[in-house]
Amino acid sequence: MKKYIHKVSICIPAYEKPQQLKRCLNSIAWQVFDDYEIIITDDSRNQSIKAVISLFKKTFGSKLLYIKNDRSLGAPRNWNKAISFARGEYVKIIHHDDWLSDRNSLLNFVNAMDNSPDSILGFAVSLNTNEQMNIISKNYIDKDKLKSIENNPYCLFYNNYIGAPSATIYRNINKIIFDANLKWLVDVDFYIRLLEENGKKILFIPDSSVNISLEHNRVTSLCVSSPDIIWEENLYMANKLKKHLCFYNVIVHLNNILISCNFRMDKFFDFGLWKRYGLKVFLFLILFKFMSRIKLILNQEFFSRPPNSGMTIVKIQGGLGNQMFQYAFGRALSLKKTEPLKLDISSYPDHNRREYYLNYYNISAEFATQEESCFAQYQYQPLYWRILCRILKKTCPPQIALSCLVQNGSEYFDKIYDKRYIYYNGYWQNEKYFNEIRDELLRTFTLKNTFSDRTVTYLKQISENNSIAIHVRRTDYANNPTTNKFHGLLDIKYYEQAIDFINARVKKNDIFIFSDDIDWCKNNFIRYNPVYIKNTAPHEDIFLMSKCQHNIIANSSFSWWGAWLNENKEKIVVAPEQWFADDLANEQAYKDGLIPDNWVRL
User: Fold this and answer.
1) Does residue 247 come out as left (phi exceeding 0), alpha (psi in the -120 to 50 range) or beta?
2) Mean pLDDT confidence for 527-542
3) Which stretch of 183-197, 200-214, 396-410 has the lowest confidence by average pLDDT?
4) Mind giving me the DSSP string for 261-309?
5) CA dihedral sign, ordered 530, 531, 532, 533
């Protein structure tokens, strides 16, 4: 049996950012588990990382190994260099701008792997954080997805359910290295090969968590701004894994990549790319050689239900508030039409900063398959995809003739129950769609899991006196010109008027601030001595807002739901008069009923 010097080798590939490395090393020094070594490979162009290392020599002593690269290796090669020095039973990669969330994180990693000797790879909860270190999303996997990875690791090509390398730990058995040809899919490729070569047993560790930094200059963010990288890497991976992937699913996946990257149609016909990655003349293979195969798959997977059966597919998109609107709309609609509800969550690709949050609630719906969602909305796809769908419509059963209803803007549709419509693409921000099932939605939007200790503490404070939940949304509204032009930005005067309005009617109110910009709030709400809600997950924030006696909401669907779920019969809800920056859009939204009649507009 191989002898290991340490239990865990913590590999930290570093590239400048000395302050972030300090945070990472402090989180390691804080751990209760201490049988580890730290390997730092420095790919920086300067001496900033080396200066940080000198500060921690006394803390870690001989446990810390520092290597300065003679020349820049680039991200994957620098990761591989750190791994090559690992002498521990387990390898724990942590990128230098990520950090362990609590004192027991490393202990929980090790205990979980020790207790599951068949598992080659373990991964924990990823807490995605912005530059202000606020948690903006959480990567949490359910049992079904975990089982799907074990059954078929290649499914990670379509969805990276595991998350960033910093959230993982694996057995130091074979020297599996990262593919230096990749940036966007480098982690996915590594996970697949690790599971493929060492057994498919994988472990989810819910008791441990790692904070993942989503700063703008990370490699993944750079890839988002360069769609060519995403497209070429998906072709590279499709060719690399072609023996293990379902041909039709690859086509659907590549089609979705084209759409999400907003590629021009001529990119699909760049045969130099197809030839380079071994997928020669793929388009013609789709249209002709594999036509019968595609039809067979459609009949088996999509048309196997009774001829007269229907379904309601709702596209889920945006943040948590938007997702709740879309689900509530879909649930009410499916009950009215007596059809099963399916959710299309294909708008949440790998590394997306938005997270699918509805799995935290007790929802009643299935996920639409890729085939169902793609063909249901085929008329909104690029030309080449519409041509394929039209050809298939001529030769496939009648259920392929699906109709899509698209909501442009915030207009209210009063004829949504037409049986012709199956796929619904919109935001549906109006309680008229679902007010009839309010009691069911109050039960549905209760959280399945227990609350964090921090949330329990806030809940106790909220329940002690009259309380006002104030939501302030600023980060994307202030920093993104496109978002700002559409939504506008509320100033402190609105919030002061809203507080005065409630205080004039209800005395002795405690104020609780929910915001993505706590620093701005501290500078502007200082005279109210509020409680600032920090480091809680979005679904917990909505829960806490709903438990306050009164609500002052932003022009955001997020706080709209915090107020709507508030069951206090005497509640006062204040909403901004200017929901959208554009006056015509704003007038239409209020005319259609965006804000319930019993809420106050200021």
Assistant:
1) alpha
2) 91
3) 396-410
4) TT--HHHHT-HHHHHHTT-TTHHHIIIIITHHHHHHHHHHHTS-S-TT-
5) negative
The pTM is what? Answer: 0.55
- Look at the block and give the residue holding tokens 């300090």: 22
Listing DSSP states for 195-228 in one string gives HHHH-S-EEEEEEEEEEEE--TTSHHHHHHT-HH
Please tell me the predicted confidence (pLDDT) of residue 262.
Answer: 54
SS (H, E, C) 117-145: CCCCEEEEEEEEECCCCCEEEEECCCHHH
- CB burial of 7-19 (b: ≥16 within 10 Å; e: otherwise) equals bbbbbbbbbbbbe
How large a percentage of the chain has pLDDT more than 90? 42
- Establish how many alpha carbons lie within 13 A of residue 197's alpha carbon, considering only the half-sphere containing its beta carbon: 14
pLDDT in tens, 475-503: 878 777 777 777 888 999 999 999 999 99
Q: How far is residue 175's CA from residue 187's CA, in Å, rounded to a whole number?
A: 15
| C-alpha–C-alpha distance, residues 188 and 476, integer Å | 29
Which residue, among 342, 320, 322, 319, has the nearest Cα to 331 in the 3D structure? 342
Question: Hey, which residues does 212 pair with through a beta bridge?
Answer: 128
Q: Which of helix, strand or coil describes residue 469? A: strand
Q: Please state, rounded to an integer, the average pLDDT across all residues of the chain.
A: 81
Q: What is the pLDDT of residues 139-180, one digit of tens each?
A: 778 777 888 888 889 889 888 889 899 999 999 987 788 998
Q: Give the pairing of strands 466-472 and 550-552.
A: parallel
Per-residue DSSP letters for 480-534? -HHHHHHH----HHHHHHHHHHHHTTS-SEEEEEEES-HHHHHHHSGGG-PEEE-
CA distance 351 to 333: 31
Choose among 313, 315, 329, 320: nearest CA to 354: 320
Q: If you ran DSSP here, which 8-state letter would residue 16 be given?
A: S
Q: For the chain, what is the radius of gyration of the CA atoms?
A: 26
- What 8-state DSSP symbol labels residue 356? -
Distance of CA 514 to the CA centre of its chain: 20
Coil/strand/helix, residue 36: strand
113 contacts: CB under 8 Å, gap ≥ 6: 90, 119, 122, 169, 171, 203
**Cα–Cα–Cα angle for 70, 76, 79, rounded to 5 degrees:** 70
- How far apart CA 580 and CA 413 sit, in angstroms, is 20
Determine the Cα–Cα distance for residues 19 and 68; give it in Å rounded to an integer: 18
Identity at 74, one-letter amino acid code: G
> Cα–Cα distances in Å, from 416 out to 217, 402, 421?
44, 15, 8
How many residues appear in the chain?
602
Q: What is the pLDDT of residues 211-226, one digit of tens each?
A: 988 764 456 656 655 6
- Report the C-alpha gap between 418 and 4 in whole angstroms: 66
Q: Identify the three-state secondary structure at position 324.
A: helix
What value does the mean pLDDT take over residues 74-102?
93
- Using a 10 angstrom Cβ sphere, with 0-12 exposed, 13-18 middle and 19 or more buried, the burial of residue 360 is buried
